[in-house]
Amino acid sequence: MTQKQQSMITTVQQHILQQQANFPDATGTFSWLLSGITLAGKMIEAKIRSAGLTDILGAYGNTNVQGEQQQKLDVYANRAMEHCLGLRDSVAALVSEEDDEPVVYNRDGETGKYIIVFDPLDGSSNIDVNVNVGTIFSVFKRPQWGDVNSSVLQPGSKQVAAGYVLYGPSTILVYTTGSGVHGFTLDPTIGAFVLSWENMKMPEAGPYYSVNEAYLEESAPVYTQFVHDMRSGKIGPKHGSRYIGSLVADFHRTLLKGGIFFYPPTEKTPLGKLRLMYEANPLAFIAEQAGGAATNGTDRILDIQPEGIHQRTALAIGSKTEVEALRSMLKG
Length: 332
Ligand code: AHG
Ligand code: MN
Ligand code: MN
Description:
332 residues; alpha+beta; 8-stranded mixed beta sheet; 5-stranded mixed beta sheet
């Protein structure tokens, strides 16, 4: 790479420092915190790259608090996130899909300023078939007073940052601190996430809808009508269908191309399948920052006051056209 090209790159750490204006009281603390996530992302990426060569595929043999079979990579990703973030003394607590309770660090309010909520590996069912998986994270400030546990349950509107690492043909990091959405590509030759897309904007509408059609009959008939209306071009363009089965990958495609991803309440999951705090909230923050929308069908995702760290929610997220159309159909 020529000297000029070399000087052209912006790493995610540099970008965060440029964004530091949003964190007047976080003298570089936040970029140090984010470097814990990027380090964990590189560790997880390395494991995924060599999955077929090492004993990291398949079930770990435990069932997690979700009642799901933990995959070995779920456990590895969780340990990587806890190791890399736990070492940052600005972390007051970690909340993970894979842990029953928050991991609380004994740090005073001045030092331990942040609470990080994460899905260490999203799309676990796709690990063994070499399809995109990801890590999703959400960052809250710890309120000055009160014990940490009670300050974990904050609505998504209080997030100070959110993002994801998507492990696919390339490994990318997308994040927002409330000043737009920015995307980085891991450059393996220098081991850094390098700026690829600044101020990402979600298209107004179409061309895909994304839902697990196998469960549509288990949901309210209005969802089947909604799919018909999208296929026929009654809502935006005539939509095609895409469903990867990894939320983070289905969302990333929706962010880039437009359209809607939705996981409605079903007989098996009457409250929705996806988790509010570490799947819906962070992606809803990104969607809104990119000009899109996210709802549980009636309410704005970011307005929902969580009752529990593993609370589930219905989710419809993507371009405003489709999300608003679904919401008005559900209103009747
Ligand atoms: P996780 O692997 O973290 O448990 O998340 C899986 C989620 C989400 O990634 C995906 O959108 C959804 O499960 C797929 O659910 P179905 O297999 O029921 O379609
Ligand atoms: Mn997940
Ligand atoms: Mn997961």
